[in-house]
Design a protein that fits this description.
Layout: H1 2-8, E1 15-25, E2 36-37, E3 40-41, E4 58-67, E5 73-79, H2 89-100, E6 106-109, H3 117-125, E7 129-133, E8 138-142
Length: 144
């Protein structure tokens, strides 16, 4: 469906912006433990690296990637609450590589954790371009 929408509306797939945020939850959520329910695995709600600085609350991690031409959503996922942001980039990049049909798009990372050597190396190995920008780290690399 996303590929059809990209083609139909001629979305610009030369640059993607990727970001994540924690969804903070109150309550027990005992059934959200990764076990299957109605044939589908549930997410694990848990204490993690909460961006609201509320270690007392459980969370999930929401990841959204948009195109640069008008912030059109092209990919999202929700992952277990203990998932660190930096672990999500290679899988998201692979999906966008398939959606765009090329590795020649620019991947914009807005947080220091995305700039980790493993993520930059993954994108470089797959011949992608990356622009990483954070308060403490500014890197610009383009691999082609």
């Amino acid at each position: 469906m996303v590929v059809s929408a990209i083609r139909r509306f001629a979305s610009d797939c030369t640059e993607f912006h990727n970001d994540s945020t924690s969804i903070t939850l109150s309550g027990d959520y005992a059934a959200a433990n990764g076990d299957p329910q109605r044939g589908q695995a549930t997410l694990k709600v848990g204490h993690g690296h909460n961006k609201d600085h509320r270690p007392d609350l459980k969370q999930l991690l929401w990841i959204l990637t948009v195109s640069a031409d008008g912030a059109v959503p092209v990919h999202y996922r929700v992952v277990d609450g203990k998932t660190e942001d930096s672990q999500t980039h290679p899988a998201a990049w692979d999906i966008l590589h398939r959606l765009a049909g090329t590795a020649s798009f620019l991947w914009l990372l807005r947080h220091r954790c995305g700039c980790r050597e493993g993520n930059v190396g993954w994108i470089a190995h797959n011949r992608g371009g990356i622009l990483a920008d954070s308060v403490r780290t500014k890197r610009r690399s383009h691999f082609s």
